[in-house]
Design a protein that fits this description.
The chain is of the alpha/beta class. The protein has a single domain, classed as Glycoside hydrolase/deacetylase (TIM Barrel, Alpha-Beta Barrel), CATH 3.20.20. Helix content is about 35%, strand content about 15%. It is built from 8 helices and 9 strands. It is globular. It comes from Caballeronia fortuita. InterPro entries: Glyco_hydro/deAcase_b/a-brl, NODB_dom, PuuE. GO terms for molecular function: hydrolase activity, acting on carbon-nitrogen (but not peptide) bonds. This is Polysaccharide deacetylase.
Length: about 300
């Protein structure tokens, strides 16, 4: 268990990341592929998952399987996935897939489309469950199963890791012990990658964001225009700051949320806004990791 916390970070003088092409901002779009791996009665849980759907928070009184909630999840893989893939393909933009292994097993056509598009897959776990509730042996087995499954369905092992919401106190150590991961993204407290030493090994952390995330549709925003304005303002601030202090921006997307037409329209507007700017590196998460490892290695 890591007991220490760091409230200082890079402080007032963050390093110049030296993004390729002297970019003022690196932006990474993340599509969370979770549908088919969420808690469900069919997979052994006692209730149907409703999080990040229109049914979240409803006291429906459904006993047993919640077929409505299941359908809301299935919309993401049946429809939302293909809409998001089209938006990025039309613009020639890369993205990262936070892929839950079991979910991709259950939709081979989606796994093949991701592979053909050369999007990188960061493991989102064997299943979309709460890792902080797993004991160490079970979590180690879930990591092993995720690696094996994603290697089989996507053609390449995952080099990054991201838990559902929060890691356990063991996750980072288990990833370091496994030895094949280049980074994890189980942290929300910065806008640049940084190094940790885990078990006497250097371990890269690439922060993620729950703020620049379509999860806002489940809490604070209601329309595509509202979401676009929030994302635009974030991008514009970071772009201005990037004249002297370049940073990175993570944009989290969920197929069953922003994959709906009115919400996807807000994403479309934001993609076009980003593309109007020069000196922007729209990139995959694995490329950020490899860049940081090459340009900013940990010096003992």
């Amino acid at each position: 268990m890591e007991l220490e916390r760091d409230f200082i970070g890079y402080g007032a003088t963050p390093p110049n990341p030296r993004w390729p092409g002297k970019a003022r901002i690196a932006i990474n779009f993340v599509m969370n592929y979770e549908e088919g791996s969420e808690p469900s009665i069919g997979d052994g849980e006692s209730a149907t998952e409703t999080w990040f759907t229109e049914s979240h928070g409803l006291n429906s009184g459904v006993r047993g399987r919640d077929l409505a909630a299941e359908g809301l999840f299935e919309y993401g893989s049946r429809v939302g996935f293909w809409r998001l893939m089209r938006l990025f393909e039309e613009r020639g933009l890369p993205l990262t897939v936070y892929g839950c292994a079991l979910a991709l097993e259950r939709n081979p056509k989606a796994a093949e489309a991701i592979r053909q598009a050369h999007h990188d897959v960061c493991s989102h776990g064997w299943r979309w469950i709460k890792h902080y509730e797993l004991d160490e042996a079970t979590e180690r087995e879930h990591i092993r199963r995720a690696i094996e499954s994603l290697t089989r369905t996507t053609g390449e092992r995952p080099y990054g890791w991201y838990c559902r919401y929060s890691p356990s106190v063991n996750t980072r150590r288990l990833l370091a012990e496994e030895g094949g991961f280049l980074y994890d993204s189980d942290y929300y407290g910065d806008e640049l990658p940084f190094w940790r030493v885990v078990g006497n090994r250097p371990h890269l952390v690439i922060p993620y964001s729950l703020t620049t995330n379509d999860g806002q549709y489940a809490s604070s925003v209601g329309t595509g225009s509202q979401w676009f304005e929030f994302m635009r303002d974030t991008f514009d601030m970071l772009y201005r700051e990037g004249a002297t202090q370049p940073k990175m921006m993570s944009v989290g997307l969920h197929m069953r949320l922003i994959g709906h037409p009115a919400r996807a329209a807000g994403l479309e507007r934001f993609l076009d806004h980003v593309m109007k700017h020069e000196d922007v590196w729209v990139t995959r998460r694995i490329d950020i990791a490899r860049h940081w490892i090459a340009e900013h290695p940990l010096i003992a």
